[in-house]
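Troubleshooting entry. The earlier prediction with zinc ion gave an output that would not parse, so I re-checked the input for stray whitespace and re-submitted. Clean input:
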Amino acid sequence: MNSSLKDLYQLQQIDSRIAYLNKRYHELDNGSALKALYDETLKQNETFQASFKNLQRDIKDAELELANIETKEKECHKSLYGGRVSNPKELAALEKEIESLKKQRSRLDEKILLMMDEVETNKNKEKELTAHLMESEQNYKKKESEYKKEVSVLAIEARNLKSEREKLASTINPAMLKKYESLRSGKAGIGIGKIETESCSACHTTLRNSVIRHIKESDEIVFCDNCGRMLYIPE
Ligand SMILES: [Zn+2]
């Protein structure tokens, strides 16, 4: 058997492992879906915070308005019972004004109460959103760090394999190496198959005994009848 075949087959194993690592690398989850989920939650939270702020501002406005009404009411009472106004028309107008202010106050009281209820609901929602935000941040950061770790493990192995490959390739007959490379590029990354239980390991076709004998006995490179790859027999 041609002595380069063993080295070529070893090279094939390195190349297959490098291809596998490359495939694994492309299949890794880099956490981008979880990051998008986190960004979405962050946006939701911002929208919520803005509307909560508006609600709190509305309450302050309503409270100020309420204080104004109360002041006006007090002034009207003072005028009504202070004895300075005696004209019946003016007195009637004051009573009417007081009545109207009372109605406004009661409407505002109700409005403020409703808004206070809303504040309670919002506080609960704020807690939920904050917890959700923290959770989704942890999820994506965890995935991101797992990804970085996995990438670095793959990169270290790939680097070692590449240097191993370089050393091995430099010892192989250049013409055979070239043939192997050209086969590999056209045949799904596999340029050489080994013979296992009389068949080609790359395409699983059973090989004729004469072919096997020929590989063993001569120095020639023999190709699989079916897939056209080089054949190697492990010792
Ligand atoms: Zn084959």
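This one parsed fine. Residues 193, 200, 202-203, 205, 224, 226-227, 229 surround zinc ion (CB under 6 Å).
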